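Per reviewer request, we include the raw input and output of the structure prediction for the construct analysed in the revised manuscript.
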Amino acid sequence: MAEYAPDVIVVVSYGLMLPKWTLTASRMGCVNIHPSLLPRWRGAAPMQHAILSGDTVTGVTIMQINEFMDAGDIYLQEVTEIGIKENILDLSRRLSVMGSRMLLKVLDSIESIQPIKQDESGVTIANKLEEFRIDFEEAADVICRRIRALYPKMYFMLDGSRVRVLEAESYEFAEMNIGDVINNELHIRCGGIQHWFLWLCSKSQKSHVILRAFCAGLEASLCLLYHKLAIIFQFDNFS
């Protein structure tokens, strides 16, 4: 790389630590686009953790790369709100556009920008998330955020088949029994007094169905056991 004598090296979504020799291989060092408001959510899955943790805002950081994970000085940050129904695909698309614009702005004036050190007291870590099976003992709002954060991978098992849950909503309704159906819609009681309403699911990689169409192919009632919690599905006539 030294033979090319680059002015700056730009790194995006690399996922690994750069070899130390690359940090000094260019005149202005290495610049990274990171999809969070550093020092919050350093690591491999910052957008997923922002959604899962219920953050209302996130953003993009243009930063120097040093020998530590996402710990370099900051050239530029911009903030954006996280939509209440926004999933990881929607958010990543928005932040990629935002980050591209910010990167060009930084590169245009990088020699005159004085980068700012990160506040180490505000560091949080965003490790990769690899558990995709729904645990109904979690609170319903957490499950719904997990569905958005890990879209489209969250699932539960039904009669030996994996059913992916693509969209759901949580709310409180203390009078409901576990699995009660209201207005021909499936509401599942989870941890605490919250429930979640599953309304878009899939039994394959290629087909998405709304709940009513999904339920039409099931028996009148099913009883499933998840982690010592009985979840009863009772379906009215969906025709």
